[in-house]
Each structure stands twice: as structure tokens, then as C-alpha cells.
Design brief:
The structure holds 2 protein chains of 2 kinds. Chain A is α/β, with parallel strands linked by helices. Helix content of chain A is about 40%, strand content about 20%. The longest helix of chain A has 29 residues, at about 5-30. Classes of the chains: A alpha/beta, B mainly alpha.
Chain lengths: ~325, ~230
């Protein structure tokens, strides 16, 4: 390179190195404290995520959490690709595969709610009298009424497919449509079209005032929905991610989960111990008294005051053979 | 499987699911483009060829409509077709018809604004000349439009480019229903979310090819324009 060219090039090189340096420092400065939390749309749409992050921010200042609300399938995929540091998901078999594949450290159940079968309040398919989730879903399939599936590989979608398998129904045909969208849009669409859908109770409660849908079937072990936290292995933000996980499972974090109520004062999620204890109670029902309480059994907050079973629930308990009755029948 | 290899396999194996989505996209955007041309071209040409008071503000209004965000159009069409909306009785929401309606509303401003500009560029003398030679008023207008046909084709192509690649409005009013309202753009969003990058990449490649074809068409129109100046 001759002298002239070097003189000409000098400012560019200086500028380029300056830009590179500022870029590097910018990344280091802005990114070091930000934990990317990939979670499911149900946690976001229900408003729990904002509630938890606000409580966490007040309790543990200085750690910025950037939440990303996607389906469970995408959340796990983000973790697999190292694009997320922490996951809150609800698809047990996919979570176990994720951990077994070496992508995550452990699957720590933190809370649960349940799924509900929703549909037009008039219930044209007549699912209210069903005794099990699979029976309710089969009734919809046989009636030919429209059923709207998430179809997005999410935890809710997987649960729906599992129930179809149990019900021995192949979800295909004019009555079955896959929306390929999150819970919120699918509920909106079901409401507009007068269709049935499987929804998580929290999102449904949060959106209920805007929907022409009602809970037509609820209860039973097949509709139980457990959310777990997984720290992505090899994440550069592992320490911060662990702090959040520890907070979520601490008494303060549990109180924040249990204390989140919808506009009508109904609890949407219930905290659980990391070993999955206390999963027997479902939202909106009297909690099961557990005598062999694990050391870290969740503290029951004011939000879990026992509710009297509704008339429908009591009738249901009487009509269902004891083998099929679930915990709420006592 | 490597996503790129999977994309190549889908593109070359004649995967039915893939091509069904591509055909639906072309059908919906093509129909919308036809309707948008029927609406936008006469409006654009009429404003472009006439001289009237408030012409300036009218031109500004048409050009501003270009900046209408597609999601806002989607929201408006949603509210219109929703059960509680004024056209709820049609039960058109979440159907290809709703998507065509939204895309027509997005493409029409493109067609109108560009054909307006094209018609304005034709020397006004041409119309006078045609009239002097005994053409009726309508015939004079048609002669003028014929002279700017290259630009008008460009207007139509630009409108198509705007809607074939649009995702917000079709997601809102179409709902991305498998086999009914799932088009290329909404399928790309979904397959990326599902982690099915192969199908997403294959659809993206087809979308890029369509965009490239449109631009090649525009370039060739431009060349044809140069060879045929107004004076010829």
C-alpha cells in the first residue's frame, strides 16, 4: 500500500475500529443483565407474566427480564437454539425430551391451572353432561359442530391431540379447523364462529368479557395443566436465570403467583412445590387437604379460600362412578 | 434434517401442502388485485386527467392513502365483518372473501396513486389533439390511457407486490386456518413459530421469486417505455 492510500484509508480504519468498539461495549453493557425469558402465550395473555415481572422487579432490582410470549413448541425451540435463557412452558413430554437431550438442566414445576372445554353458551353439541374430557370432545366430533384447534404445536395443542387420541377420534373433516395461532386469537375466532375449543382457564377468564363463549366442561386429570421452568444449559445468563427461578419457587414468588386474580377475584394460577406436590387442586375448586405435606408445601393464600361446589359439580359427582370422579368430589 | 435441505426437498418434490398454500395466496391476492384495479385505476386516471378545484388536496389524499398501514386496514375490515359489526350478518370473517376485501383495500391506493401520476404525465395536448381529430371525450381519454399503459401496468404490479407479501391484515381477517385461509405469509409466521424452518424457507423462497418476477417485469416495462417516447 503506498503512502497516499494509507493516508486515505486511515480515517476509515479509525472509524471502523471505533464503531466496532462501541458496538462491542454496547452489546456487553446492554446485554449482560438482560435475561431472555421464553414463555407461552397463555402466561402472557392472562396477564400473569406482567404481574410476576413487576413483582420481581420490585423485589430484585437490577435484573432486566425480557419476556417473549410464544407457543411451548417455539419456546423449547428457542431454548434449543440458545436464543433464550429461561423457559416457562407446559408440555411435559416435550419438556422431558428437552432435558433428556441435554438442552436444559432440569424441569422445575412451579404452578398449574387447568384446561377447559369452551363453546357457544347454548351448547348445541351437548357436552355439559359428559363425564370425562375425552367424552366431551368425542361428543363435539360426533355432533359435527365446529371445533377450532390451536394447531400451533403449543402445549395446549398437544394436550388437545392427546385427548383426541384417548377419545379415539381422528380430528379431521369439515368440523375441525386448525387456526395456527395463539390462545387469544383462537378464542376470539371461536367466539365469532360459534365454535368449540380447548382453552387454558387463565386465558379464557382474562378474555371472557369479550367472548360469547362459556365453560362447558371442566375437571378431571386429563385437563390438568402444569407449568415448569427450565434453565437453558450453557446460557451466558445462567446466574440471573437461576435467581429468577429461585424467586419463583420462594414463598414470595408463590404468593405472587397465587395472588394474581382476575377482575372477578378468581385465582388464575396456583403455585406448586418443585416436586410437583399440590398438583391435585384445580383453580376455582376447594383445595385438597394434603396430610403428607412436603417440606416446602405451598402456603395457601387468601386467594384460595374454599368455594362451595356449584350445583352442577355436586350433581356431576353424584352421577359419576367413583372410579371416574376426580379430587373435587372428595 | 438441515432446514435448507428440507426446504429444497419440499420445493422439488411437489409437496401438496406447500403448493396448495402458494396457489391460495395467488388466488386471493390475484382476485384482490383485479378488484383493486377496477376501483383504483378509474379513480386515479380520472383525477390525473381532469383539472378541478381542490385537485391538489385530492392528489395529496390519494398519495397519503399509500401510507395506510396494512394492519390498520385489517383491523377496519375485522370490525366491519365481526358479528357485532355492521356487516356481521354476512358471516364473512375468517374466509378467503374477507382476505380479498382487506387486500383490495390495501392494493387500491397503490393502483390509484401510481395511475394518477402516470395519467398526469401524459401531455394534455394529446387529449385536445384527439378531440380535434374527431374523437369523442371517452375515446380521447382511452387514447391517453393507451399512451401511459406501461406506467399503468407498473401501478398494477406495485399493487400486487404490496399484497402478496402482506401478513398483518390477512392474519387478522383470515385467521390462518389450515386449508382455508392459510397463505404464504401467515404460514411462514406459523412454521417459524413451530420450528419448521424447512417449510418456512421454501415458502420464503417462492415469495422472493414472485417479488423478483414482478421487479423484472417492471424493469422490462421501463425499457419498453424508453423505446417508445410520447412523440412517437
Amino acid at each position: 500500500m503506498n503512502r497516499g492510500a494509507r493516508l486515505l484509508a486511515a480515517p476509515y480504519l479509525a472509524g471502523a475500529s471505533l464503531a466496532a468498539a462501541s458496538l462491542a461495549s454496547g452489546c456487553a453493557g446492554g446485554g449482560s443483565e438482560t435475561v431472555l425469558l421464553a414463555t407461552t402465550t397463555s402466561v402472557e395473555d392472562s396477564g400473569l407474566l406482567a404481574h410476576l415481572l413487576e413483582a420481581y422487579r420490585q423485589d430484585v432490582p437490577g435484573v432486566a427480564i425480557r419476556p417473549l410470549a410464544v407457543g411451548s413448541g417455539e419456546a423449547l425451540e428457542l431454548g434449543r437454539r440458545g436464543d433464550a435463557d429461561l423457559l416457562i412452558v407446559h408440555n411435559q413430554s416435550a419438556e422431558e425430551a428437552f432435558v433428556a437431550g441435554g438442552y436444559g438442566e432440569a424441569r422445575v414445576p412451579i404452578m398449574f391451572n387447568d384446561f377447559v372445554v369452551v363453546g357457544p353458551p347454548a351448547d348445541p353439541a351437548g357436552v355439559t353432561s359428559s363425564s370425562a374430557a375425552s367424552e366431551a370432545m368425542r361428543t363435539i366430533a360426533e355432533s359435527g359442530e365446529l371445533f377450532l384447534s390451536r394447531g400451533d404445536n403449543s402445549g395446549t395443542h398437544h394436550r388437545e391431540l392427546e385427548i383426541w387420541r384417548v377419545a379415539d377420534v381422528t380430528p379431521e373433516g369439515r368440523w375441525y379447523q386448525e387456526a395456527g395461532q395463539g390462545m387469544g386469537p383462537v378464542l376470539q375466532m371461536a367466539s365469532e364462529r360459534g365454535a368449540y375449543a380447548l382453552a387454558d382457564r387463565s386465558t379464557f377468564y382474562a378474555m371472557e368479557p369479550h367472548l360469547e363463549l362459556a365453560v362447558l366442561f371442566e375437571g378431571g386429570p386429563r385437563l390438568r395443566n402444569v407449568y415448569s421452568v427450565i434453565i437453558v444449559r450453557g446460557s451466558p445468563k445462567e446466574a440471573q436465570a437461576r435467581t429468577l427461578l429461585e424467586w419463583l419457587t420462594s414463598p414470595v414468588g408463590r404468593r405472587a403467583i397465587d395472588g394474581y386474580l382476575d377482575d372477578y377475584g378468581r385465582p388464575l394460577f396456583h403455585s406448586t412445590t418443585p416436586d410437583g406436590e399440590a398438583v391435585g387442586t384445580l383453580p376455582g375448586r376447594p383445595p385438597v387437604v394434603r396430610t403428607r405435606g412436603a417440606p416446602g408445601a405451598p402456603e395457601r393464600g387468601a386467594s384460595e379460600v374454599t368455594r362451595r361446589p356449584t350445583l352442577r359439580e355436586r350433581l356431576l359427582c353424584r352421577s359419576v362412578p367413583p372410579a371416574h370422579a376426580d379430587a373435587r368430589c372428595g | 434434517m438441515n432446514p435448507l435441505a428440507e426446504a429444497w426437498r419440499l420445493l422439488t418434490s411437489g409437496d401438496l401442502h406447500l403448493w396448495e398454500i402458494v396457489l391460495r395466496s395467488l388466488y386471493i391476492s390475484g382476485t384482490a388485485l383485479g378488484l383493486a384495479t377496477l376501483v383504483g385505476l378509474p379513480i386515479g386516471a380520472a383525477i390525473g386527467l381532469s383539472r378541478f378545484r381542490l385537485r391538489g388536496p385530492t392528489v395529496a389524499l390519494v398519495n397519503t392513502s399509500l401510507a395506510l398501514p396494512p394492519v390498520v386496514v385489517g383491523l377496519a375490515v375485522y370490525l366491519l365483518l365481526s358479528r357485532s359489526g355492521p356487516l356481521g350478518g354476512l358471516e364473512m370473517l375468517y374466509s378467503p372473501g374477507a382476505m380479498i376485501l382487506a387486500q383490495t383495500a390495501i392494493a387500491a391506493p397503490y393502483v390509484a396513486a401510481i395511475s394518477l401520476a402516470a395519467a398526469s404525465e401524459v401531455p394534455p395536448d394529446l387529449q385536445l389533439q384527439a378531440r380535434a381529430l374527431g374523437a369523442s371525450r371517452l375515446e380521447a381519454v382511452l387514447v391517453t390511457l393507451r399512451e401511459s399503459r406501461a406506467s399503468l401496468l407498473a401501478a398494477v404490479a406495485a399493487g400486487f407486490g404490496a399484497i402478496i407479501s402482506e401478513v398483518g391484515a390477512v392474519m387478522i381477517v383470515g385467521g390462518n386456518i389450515l386449508g382455508e385461509t392459510r397463505v404464504m405469509t401467515t404460514a411462514i409466521v406459523l412454521e417459524t413459530r413451530r420450528g419448521n424452518f424447512g417449510l418456512a424457507i421454501a415458502l420464503g423462497a417462492i415469495l422472493l421469486t414472485i417479488a423478483l418476477a414482478i421487479n423484472l417485469l417492471l424493469v422490462s416495462i421501463g425499457r419498453a417505455d424508453l423505446r417508445r417516447p410520447w412523440s412517437s
